[in-house]
Design brief:
The protein has 341 residues and is mainly α. The protein is globular and about 55 Å long. It has one domain. It is built from 16 helices and no strands.
Amino acid sequence: MKQIALTHAIAAIGVALFIMLGLPLPWLLGPVFACLVTALAGVPLKGIAVLNNTMRTILGVAVGATFTSALVISMAGMWTTLILVPPMILLIGLVGVTYFHRLWGFGFATSYYGAMPGGLQDMLLFGEEAGADVRALSLIHATRVMVIVVALPFVLKWYWNVDLTNPPGAPATSLPVSQLLLMVFAGIVGWQVAKAVGMFGASILGPMILAGAMALTGLLEHRPPAEAIWAAQFYIGMTVGTKYAGVTGEEVRRDVAAALGFCVILLILSGLFVEAIHLLSLAPPMETLLAFAPGGQAEMTVLALIAGADMAFVIAHHVLRIVVVILGAPIAARLFRSLGR
């Protein structure tokens, strides 16, 4: 309990410092930086896994609540950019495996699952089954998410002048109690049903689907209150930062350094696709950046919500990315291994 309380206190200090300094997204980036620095300093940190997942359901409900008939119909017109997601993943995989395996000397399984831009839990599960170094995978993916989450808000703020200080929703006191209860129902039931059927990203996608259905039928008329979105940001940021708890100097020199180099590669490759889409006028540039940024699903959802982006566009591309990685990673890994032999 002391570790959990200490972790929350450090994350709260990070929020306060970011607010004082006027930095973007204090409820998300404050905990990330505070917990990251403290963890690297050797302070034992610990979160509450169940609570972290519960906070993700808030994001799922928030996205689902934005669904309208017109929005759902518009998703059919996204095919011109959706078809670019698999080629991007293939290119990332080819470059990433070579980078980790040839340049840093990681084993094939670690190189492959470290390069795949999928969810942390999924990549750790597949990687462990394939004999990968789970600790290295954890640090590689945590660093990928951390770098993307930290870099994008500054790009949004200083390049597009996006106002990231607007409240992400209405105050809780202004919403009907019946609507708040429906949100809680959508979050809990959607999560548990999705988890029961084995859906990937159940804590976000389950609530999103149920809340979306309720919004389309007119039952759900509001998004979760600002306080709930801030709480979700806080716990997601804290979770990202605490991934570095217990990291040794050798792991920083090897695993984290390799991950940082790969992040540069990811940003370049993603940037090429974003620029191509922009030049072809296939989609708005800000939405394209958020949709093709290879960050975590929860973190990208937060940024899209705060930036006021087209949620359907951003989420559709990230869901497809995760689906392609999850379905294709085990098959492709076996294929590449057999070719390597």
